[in-house]
Every structure is written in C-alpha cells, then in structure tokens.
Amino acid sequence: MTTPFAQRPVIILGAGIIGCAAAYQLLQNGFQVTLVGEYLPGDKSILYASAWAGAAWHAAAGLDGDQRYIQAVTHRHLLKMALDDSSSGVCIVKGREYLDQVPGKNSSAWGKTVLKNFRTLKAGEYPSTFATAWEYDCLVVDPTLHMPWIGAKVEALGGKFVRQKVSSLGDLYNMYPESSIFINASGWGSRDLTDVLDSKCFPDRGQNVRLRSPVHDTMYFRNGNEYTYIIPRPMSGHLVLGGHNSRDNLSGEPDMDVVRDEIRRAHNLVPDLVPAEPAEEDISYIIGIRPAREGGFRLDSQKIGNRIVLSAYGFAGGGYAFSYGIGDALVKMVQQAEFDNVILPE
C-alpha cells in the first residue's frame, strides 16, 4: 500500500545546525521530518562541528546576492530567537569591526542593510592603525545552549532523530522506502558517501581559546591582515578568541602555538579586554572539525529515479550565519519538488 502523501517524511541526513534548522522550518510548515546522523544535538565529538562553533552573525564579504539574502534571512530568525527566548542561546550584543583596508566592492558593508544601529566610527573612536571601523548591534550564539534547544524544538514539533551512520544515500532509501524527498546535510561526510563522492569536501579544523571574563558584552572583529575575532558569551561569562583553521587536520589536542597566537592577536586588538598572559585557570580550548568545501557550499536539487535529493552542505565556518536562511530555502525547494512530482488522480 502506498504511504499517503501527507505521511511521507522528509529524510534529512545530518543533524548539525544546517540539518536541524531545515527540520525546524519544515516541521513548522506541516511536513513530517526524520533526521539521521552519527552525531545528534547534545553530542560533544569534535567531528560534530555545530557543538564547537564561535558563533556569531556578521555580514560576510565575498558573497553574491543570493548568499547575502540567505544570511539576512538567518539574521531575522536569530533575532526573533534572541528577543523571544533567552534559552535559545542567542544574544544581542554590540559589535565592533575594524578594517585594515578601506572596504571595496563586494565587502561586508552590505551588513548595514540588515544590522540595527550600524554606523561608521569617526577618527578617534577606533585605533588609528586601521583604515576604518564600524559599530552595530550583532547576534552571538552559544552552541552549547543552542544545539540542545533546537533539538528539543524539533522533537516538540514531532520531528524524529535516529542515530545511525550510513555509507551512502542508498542506505537512507532502503531505511525509508516510503519517502521521496531526501536532504543531504552531511557536511564533509559527502566526500565519503559512496553515491556522492564529492571530492571538493574536506575537513577544516578550527581551534579557539575560551577565556573567562567579567566583561562580555561586545564582539570585536578584525577584517584584513590578521583575521581575528573576540566573541562574547554573555550567558556563560566567557569570550571566544579566534580564529584559526587547519585543512585536513583531525587532531583533538590543542596546538599551543595556535593558543599563544590567538591570545596575542586578541590582546593586540583589545588590550584592555584580553590580557597578554591570561591566568591558566581562566582559559580552555574549543576544537571542532568544520565541514568545508572548495568553491563554497552546495545547495541544489536533483531528481534521482523517483526521488528528489536536495544538497545543503559545505558551509565551513559559516554554518550558523547561513543556518536558518538555508532552512527557509530548503522549505521552498521541498515545496517545489512536491509540486513537480505529486501525481493527482485522473
């Protein structure tokens, strides 16, 4: 017997921030959803990058119009969470962005169309070593709070999580033969899925310093020569100092040279906030393997036999900045797939 149309679950491979954001929005639009993943919300493996992100929303440079819109939609969703539910782990803080060069075409200046209280700082309001600087209200996300929160929201809406490692999308087809729409949000796992084998995917190790601090109300970001960020976590009383990445490195041990360099850069950026030599008991380390992809993330739809496979992976360090905007895009893609493939009675 054919499973009724409304009861065919959308199957999502991958339960990181992209998969969970997609599930959350699909469920709110009346779909049934099952997420399948080796790692689930609440897990602490370094291979589960969503648990170890910085994380903050700030406008990224080098994006095309569609990508900017996706990030802007994400900002809208995260802002609502910050205003409506502090347990989401999303907070509004002041942001300061220092630029080593005057912004050119395709810079992050487009953020002024999204961010509240955006202004260009006047000379004397920022260190004279920088070409210019911006201030704005920005959003930070504590993933140690947000991932359990979004996981609980998905389950409350009727979504299901299945802990299962698969070697191919075909494994999912066999597990859920009644389903016709599948979403591949497996991150760099798409490199090894035997029926995907996306050679552009690779693991990109991130390492940050978590610093206990009595002051945690402003995000600082250096855009240019020494990429540096200081992301506050107001709910836990910490600062996250970064950034760093190391391609194809899966080590879970902190690299102390990286630690010293991140502290040095953060201290140079805001010396009154970050001491040159923090007390050992005030620091800990954040390590996560980001799902990167050469040429940027993949977002598309394919018809494979009688199934539709949507791909949404390869966001590297931008998973949270793109998350709920990608979720919105996937809802539209699922709806279009249904429209194109529903067989109506004659």
Automatic annotation (TrEMBL):
InterPro entries: DAO, FAD-dep_OxRdtase. Pfam families: DAO. FAD binds at residue 166. The keyword DNA-binding does not apply. D-dopa binds at residues 229, 290, 317. GO terms for biological process: D-amino acid catabolic process. Residues 10-332 form the FAD dependent oxidoreductase domain. GO terms for cellular component: cytoplasm. It comes from the Eukaryota. Its cofactor is FAD. This is FAD dependent oxidoreductase superfamily protein. The lineage of its organism: Eukaryota, Fungi, Dikarya, Ascomycota, Pezizomycotina.
